[in-house]
Amino acid sequence: MAKSSDLQPGNPHQITRKQHIFPAKSIERFCINNAVDVWLVKQSKKIRVNQKNAIFTGNRIWDHATERGSYGVEAEFQKIADSCVDDKRDHLGKDECEIVSAFYGLLLSRREVLDNPRSPAVVHGVTGWDKSKCQNEMEYIESHGGHTICQVDNVATIDERQINGITVFKKMDRFLLDNPELEWVITHAPAGREFVVPDRFSSNVNGVLKHYAAIPITPGIALITPAIFLCQRFLAPAQIQFINSIAKKFSRVYYFASNLEAVL
């Protein structure tokens, strides 16, 4: 993958470098004293970091057009998340469930392109821009949501970030098409227990793609689809223990919580 140093010095067009898989605003809801507990899977070690830590981000994995385009999905989801916390509501409407599904699909697709970045695509019949001469113009176009074709070794190509971005939306849309009218319910953890947030929301288990199908909103509140987990509004200790065990099983690099001692 190309590095963010490919940008012009000073990043004059304010192109996003650090891109979150799980949004920074969502991580903030788990923070105590501006930090969360993170369990590093391979190191078997706990650390405390804030929502800006590099462990939660990719480095210019997709283009800025994708970052801009996904903002709408994130913003609508955050409105729903805030209302679940502030209004003490007990259910979501059909349109709200569709927004949650889009957000869940976005989480899946972002992680997928981070784990499996695409290659540049060759474009025939056109001549691309010479980046050494037109970098400022290309970055300006990207910062405003546009796409560019670059000439590399006499071959016109669309770079990997733009292909990754196209893939993010393609896979998000595929999840929505494959899971129409998916229901999401607001669930609450038992007193003294918390939800774990995994580093990925799906995993290949014995050759079969399995979904976590839960989106923790706060330490004590999560949106869960009963299509995967049959549960009531207020979870029993055994239920949250099972849900958290799936989160831990799926996680390859880390999982986090407000207080890891409350999830053991």
What is the count of helical runs?
Answer: 6
Order of helices and strands: EHEEEHHEHEEHEEEEEEHE
Mean pLDDT: 92
> What percentage of the residues does DSSP assign to strands (E)?
15-25%
Q: Please tell me what the overall shape is.
A: elongated
End-to-end span in angstroms? Answer: 37 Å
- Strand order, main sheet: write it out: 3-2-14-9
Radius of gyration: 20 Å
Report low-confidence residues grouped into runs of 5 or more.
none
Given helix and strand content, the structural type is alpha+beta
Q: How is the main sheet built?
A: 4 strands, antiparallel
The percent of residues in helical segments reads 25-40%
**Number of DSSP E strands:** 14
Number of domains: 1
